[in-house]
Amino acid sequence: MGIRVAVAGASGYAGGELLRLLAGHPEFDLVTATAHRQAGQPLDAVHPQLAGVDLTFAETTPDVLADADLVFLALPHGESAALAARLPAQVRVVDLGADHRLVDGDAWTRYYGGAHAGAWTYGLPELPGQRERIATSTRVANTGCYAATIVLALAPLIAAGAANPADVVVVAASGTSGAGRAAKTHLLASEVAGDLSPYKVGAHQHVPEIKQATGATGLSFTPVLAPMPRGILATVTALPTGEVDPRAVLAQAYADAPFVHLLPEGRWPHTAATLGGNSCHLQAGVDVDSGRLIVVAALDNLGKGAAGQAVQNANLMFGLPETTGLSCFGVAP
């Protein structure tokens, strides 16, 4: 018997991707998956891609989850904290929701509302010193999907003093799975197909998380809904602080990062190349007119942006190689 793992909120898109990764993980044994409305249904009735995984959704309660060694919480924002507080201290938890990402309680109230539950270890191993912190933690807050993409593109430039943290502009497009599985009119295929539309302009909830993780002090972020199921493409620009080679900064920062790939010069990221993998593809340059630094990043919002990132964190928490059960390669065509 390996490490016993449970997934709470496993009926959603991120939960389904977690189940898929865990079903093939060599060290984690998936023993429990919980849901609300789908409790009592077999997994493959909700996630047909998991045909052959012999589990039935249980109710989401602390008693059901407490027998696991590791619990992933794939619940809506604001629902993880109360459940996590009722789990035994020895159970290790990775929260895919936002409840424990932010250090600043005022930022939580401003962007999410309600009481702040406190910050856990931030789950992005590629940040300096973060692998070691995650490895010694029993509670880890997974990144947001947009945040993971933008932080990986921006953090090394600010840390190296290469980019002005007060003037960062980001435009990022995401697939519809980033909005969750609940039925919403604006996410119907007939509404999304052939269309690009901005949303939460100037007030997206990942802004304080991105600023916290990168050290940015001025951030303008415009998210865009793209007509595809999954994937994020972010274009990050910032003013340089001097003569800067952004590719050299990124190459040094991610020299030992198995899931972050700086593409050969002249080759720009695209979302399809990261589909189904846990990788982030980066390219960087300098705008010849404005002189601004440009970094373009692509990842799978359900992979490195959610479930894959969560498994990477869990691997570190149990002393496993962070690549265990994960692939950096996308699926094509």
Automatic annotation (TrEMBL):
Main location class: cytoplasm
Keyword field: Amino-acid biosynthesis, Arginine biosynthesis, Cytoplasm, NADP, Oxidoreductase
InterPro entries: AGPR, AGPR_dimerisation_dom, AGPR_type-1, NAD(P)-bd_dom_sf, Semialdehyde_DH_NAD-bd
Pathway annotation from the record: Amino-acid biosynthesis; L-arginine biosynthesis; N(2)-acetyl-L-ornithine from L-glutamate: step 3/4
Start and end residues of each Semialdehyde dehydrogenase NAD-binding domain: 4-135
GO BP terms, alphabetized: L-arginine biosynthetic process
Cross-referenced SMART domains: Semialdhyde_dh (SM00859)
GO cellular component, one term: cytoplasm
SUPFAM superfamilies assigned to the protein according to its UniProt record, in alphabetical order: Glyceraldehyde-3-phosphate dehydrogenase-like, C-terminal domain, NAD(P)-binding Rossmann-fold domains
Superkingdom of this protein's organism: Bacteria
EC category name: oxidoreductase
Keyword Oxidoreductase assigned: yes
Active-site residues from the entry: C145
Signal peptide: none
Role this protein plays: Catalyzes the NADPH-dependent reduction of N-acetyl-5-glutamyl phosphate to yield N-acetyl-L-glutamate 5-semialdehyde.
Family, as annotated: Belongs to the NAGSA dehydrogenase family. Type 1 subfamily.
Protein name: N-acetyl-gamma-glutamyl-phosphate reductase
